[in-house]
Every structure is written in structure tokens, then in C-alpha cells.
Design brief:
The protein is 6% helix and 41% strand. By secondary structure, it is mainly beta. The protein has one domain: Beta-galactosidase, Chain A, domain 5, CATH 2.70.98. It is globular, with a radius of gyration of 18 Å. This is Methane oxygenase PmoA.
Length: 314
Amino acid sequence: MKLYHLIIAISCILLPITILSAEETNPFRFEQSAGEIVIYLGDQALASYLYDDPITTRPYFAHVKTKQGTQVTRNHPPKADDPQDHGTYHPGIFLAFGDINGNDYWRLKAPVRHSRFIAAPDSASSGFTVENQYLDATATKTVCIETCHYQFLSQPSGYLILMKSEFTSPDDDFYFGDQEEMGLGVRMASPLREKDGNGRILNSNGKLTAKETWGQLASWVDYSGHIHDQQVGVMLMTDPGNIRPSWWHNRNYGLFAANLFGRKAMQQGAASKLPVKQGETFHLGYGVYIHEAEGLTETDLQSVYENYTKLAKE
């Protein structure tokens, strides 16, 4: 299976940013305990991948940091001085769906169960592959199965996490429905909120703010600001190999999500229903670039996206 389609990158050098190829040496290591993998670059913990949380009942990345240790996603669970909204189901970086066969995995009304590691976390390959079982609301029937591969790549500007997911069911047909809350989401650290922090939202069409970018088609969206006088941010990108581009569910309180499913929900046309026949495979990929560099321009971010599209084709 090809790798690559969820990118996370951090920039910690001044412009111009040098993006290396996927073949560069990757000094990542993984520390695994019950229900958790902590991803390290050298001695710096970059993120935790949680896959057996009894409250947030789907896999996610929490406490995502830059190479220099600046946390760019909200604390999970939220601390006392964090906004408390959506405290259980906006954990950090997460893939979630408000409607698969009428089951709501976004709001945790149906669980996603980690079934097994197809490929265990490994420093030599800098990644791992998991199988996730999407259960119905009664947690007794499998709706579909996801195979997801993550790979981590070190670069002078930070690091990348590349992901590709494949959904299938050996038993029955299933479908992805039409809601706002579908796809890859990120909940930003509280100081980076547009609403009452210093966050800025910019999309690939040059539009700014949650209001102007909500519901719009775009190849990427960047949500960035300053923490401790350092410019940091998160840029989500969509795989051009997806079935169609994404509309964007962007909010000024720190959430943004790439959503190719909710055409009607995003006020862009008739209701969408994406069926998957028994035994067929539905492919889905995203990229995330987490940066720590002053003065990133729209042109710089577009270059990051173009590099991502090359990786996505490999």
C-alpha cells in the first residue's frame, strides 16, 4: 500500500524554507504503552497517538508540538483556562464522521475500535499502520473497517506525518452522509483562536477569516498565530487523489476541518451521499503542515502544498 496522505510539518527556520524529499533520514522513535504511542524526534516529544480512550472513543493525535516544543493543539482534556466547548470530541488532530450509515462518530455516539497494528511503530520505517473498526451505536455491529498508514518524515523546516486511509466492508454496503462535521479536523491551541486569540485563517484562494472561508472549496487552509512571540500554525491540505475537493468547516473558536462530504450542510448544493459497495474500497487522504517560522506568505504555503501533492502521488 502506498504511504503518505496526512502531512504534519513544523518550520523552525527562517525563510526560505527548504522542503526535503521523502527519502531523507528520519530520526524518529516511538514509545508505546497501553493505548498510546508517543512520537519523538530526538528527545522532543512531538505528539501522542491515543487509540484506546474510554471517553474519546476514536483514535486521535493529542498535544501536538513543533520541533521546539511549542504546543499548537488545545490541551486534551481542556485545562481550566482553556475554552471548555466540545471538550471530549475536539482532542487535537482527528479524523471523524458525523454520519456513516446514520452513526455519529464525530460526537462519540458510536465508537471506533482499534483492532490491531498491521505494522507496529518502527523507527526504521518511521511509521505504523493500524486497522480501525467502526461500530454502530450499539457497539455490536461493524459498519466498516479502516486501514490507516502513518509515516513521519524529518525536514529542516520541521517534520511531516503522512497518512492514507482506506475504508471497506466485507459484509454490507455503507455510505458517508452529509453533515458539517465530517473529515479531518484540528482544534487549535487556545492562544491561536481567531475569536479571542491572535489567530489568522487563510485559504488557498487568498481568503481570510472563518466567516469568509467557511463552506468554501479550497486545496488548503492555514490557521496560525503567535505563542511566546513565535509564529506557529497548522495548515491542512487535501489529497488531490480524493474523490473530490473539500469544503471547509472553519470556526473562529479554533476548530477547522476539511470536509468533502457535506455539500448541502456546507450550503454548496444538493445533499451528498457517497455509497461504498460491499467489498469495494473508499480512499481518503489529507495533509497537515505544522510550522514554526516567521513571515510565511501565501506563496510559501502554496509551495508546501505543491510539495505535498508530489508526495501524495508516490
